[in-house]
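dude i think i finally got it to work??
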Amino acid sequence: MKKLLIVFAVLAALALVGLAILDNRVQAFAEANAEQRVAGVLPDSQGVVVRIDSWPILWSVLRGGLDHVTVTADSVTREGVRADELELVVHGIELDTAAMWSDRKLRVRGIERAVLQGTMSASSISKRVGATVVLTPGIVQVSRDGQTFVATVEVDGRHVVLKSPIPGVEPMKFGLPPRDLLPCQPDLKVLDGKLALHCEVTELPGVVRYAVGE
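look at this
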């Protein structure tokens, strides 16, 4: 009897190891497939990485949900606007299990929230506004037409506006990444050499929806 229990324990351990290996392979395949799909809809992107944090992934998919999915990209250029260091973290993904069984497709029914952040470099902003923009923490310095000033920065619709304190100097503005990539009005923070964008949404950005199979 004791030997039988030992054999059973060994077999159970081997089965668990086998399931873990299978689950890791499924996760690696899902992440690689998602990276290809995101890169496919973002042809001007670089360094796309998808990470699925939901273990075991097979059980998570079967029960109809994933804990977290993170999509990062070194840079993305859309409609002439470049954003760097993009990171999208999606929490509480609800999957359509009926569609999974009937159509064999992984579809997203909803999410709890998604946090999106990225940066725009000073050089990229300079090209957009036709001036020399220097960014240091909390300060935007602009040089144009022989004048140098510290500008205030704010979001106006789908644009970032740089306003001069000098009378008669027109505000300069540049576009945010398009709505299908940044579907919100972001908070801004001026860092060293870059402008950081941050926002939270309750729907997946259209262009990255493919990252979770839809």
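Residues 2-119+199-212 form one domain.
im so relieved honestly
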